[in-house]
Amino acid sequence: MKPIWIALLVLAAPFSARPGEAIEASDLPPAAQAMAVLLASPMVSAAGAGIEAEEARARRLAAGSHEWTVRLTEQQRRVRNTPDGRFNEWDVGIDRAFRLPGKGDLDRQLGAAGVASARIARGDALHEAGRGLLASWFEGLRELSSAEQWRRQRDVLARQAQVVARRVQLGDAPRLEGLQAEAALAQADAQYVQASGRAQLAAARLRRQYPGLNLPDAVVERPPEPVEGTESEWIQAILEHNHELGVARAQSARSRVGASRADAERIPDPSLGVRLARERDGEERLVGMTLSIPLPGAGRAADADAAIAEARVSAHREAAVLRRVESEAAALHRRALSSRAGWLRQLDAAEALGRSADLTEKAWQLGEGSLSDTLNARRLAHEAHLSAQLARLEASEARYSLLLDAHRLWPLDVRDTDQDDHDHH
What we know:
It is found in: Cell outer membrane. By secondary structure, the chain is an alpha+beta fold. The protein has 10 helices and 4 strands; from the N terminus they run αααββααααββααα. The longest helix has 68 residues.
């Protein structure tokens, strides 16, 4: 039977493979910048330090906890009714406990399991950092898109207000229409100022959280691509690369090794030593060996039972993580499909309401209809276009989130050497 640590390295293989090609898209940050920001994340750096800590613990486990102990005794013997009743004596010895056969191998497996778990945990930290970056990026794009849409609405209403003001001056329109046009313009301008402030805040927050990453000056209106593949295919791809599940599996395997090690500890390790002694001022010289064997008690049995129970706990947690990851993957796939379908419907509605607003405005300019109808039609068209823009970004974010979890967006399966090279730079 192969050691468990070999199985753990096989388990960690998908998470340490050479990264694949990243996706470059106009509505995403450049892949090189995104990866540089992610690798510089404090969360990822902390996980990298965790690997070093586990490697040190692995060396400690391989070396064992037993050490040499030197014992030195000096004494004076007094013997009555002798010409010289005082004798200087000394005793020196060295002893050490030795691991029983099999325990050292289990300790090395336990250390390797810890290192494998830490490596996968670093991949999980990189994945979580990628999720945060994607969410912050699209939050900024939504605020930028909202501000841009309000700017367009303000410009349309400003042009319309100029036409109304001219008609009022010529006596072709009542002053009430002028007030209505000015009020609509003021409201749109206020909304634009507020939206611009939110966009600036989102951009500043992105720069602070991810230094070196900046939002674009304007949002590129890139339609979200359709999601190819079945739900089961996407679930399988996500499960194959899910670091959280990998961490749970590694911890479960580590607990099983720990249970085996605790069970082996039911039999204590013996101690062997050598002793040299000089008695009666050198008249007697002693050379001997010592052997001590602790007697096992109920405490060792309790420790072994607790470790076995912890292994069962880890196995149940692994099963719970697997079930949750499958559910989240299915939900993410459905979200990507439904959000794109919703965007298409929002787009149709926005185009229809936009044409309706244009026709209503032309009719008003020809003297048919009222300004209030024109303003209301323009407001409905604006709301529909804004909803369509936000729906487009939501659909794009959902698709990119699906790609991210399947490790098809950015190369998240980086090796530790890649992190080391980044740290040196």
